[in-house]
Amino acid sequence: MLKPFLQMTLIIRDQLVNPPTWFASFRDLTLYCHVFLHQDIVIESDDPDPYVRYMRPRGGMDFVADFVRPGAEDGIHVDLEHNYPRSVITDRIAPENVHRLIARIHALRGFAG
């Protein structure tokens, strides 16, 4: 018997869009989580306008559904510090850590009560 599919939102802190994040790695992470983990992806930000202007021409909005205020959405958080129960902590999204981030996100999906 197949297990029911669990939809989970991935919330990425806005500061992780900027350098030292590699934008190609940001796209890799969002593509993988959207296509293979079937996650809705949002960016958590108090001021989304500069991020939209930065991301849109680079294709960064291709797998991002929306922007949300901090704390407004429940899900798995990719953040700079541990602010929420299901958090993946990193200082950047880059080639050397994107696979670890994906593995951690995948593991946290199993703990979504």
- Low-confidence runs (pLDDT<50, min 5 residues)? none
- The percent range for strand residues is 15-25%
The helix/strand order is: EHEHEEEH
How many domains make up the 3D coordinates? 1
Number of helices: 3
> Helical proportion?
25-40%
From the N-terminal CA to the C-terminal CA, the straight-line distance is 20 Å
Number of strands: 5
Oligomerization: single chain
Explain what this protein looks like in three dimensions.
- Helix content is 28%, strand content 18%.
- By secondary structure, the protein is α/β, with parallel strands linked by helices.
- It has helices spanning 23-35, 49-55, 98-109; strands at residues 9-13, 40-44, 66-68, 76-79, 87-89.
- Helix 1 runs parallel beside helix 3 (98-109).
- A 5-stranded parallel sheet has the order 3-2-1-4-5.
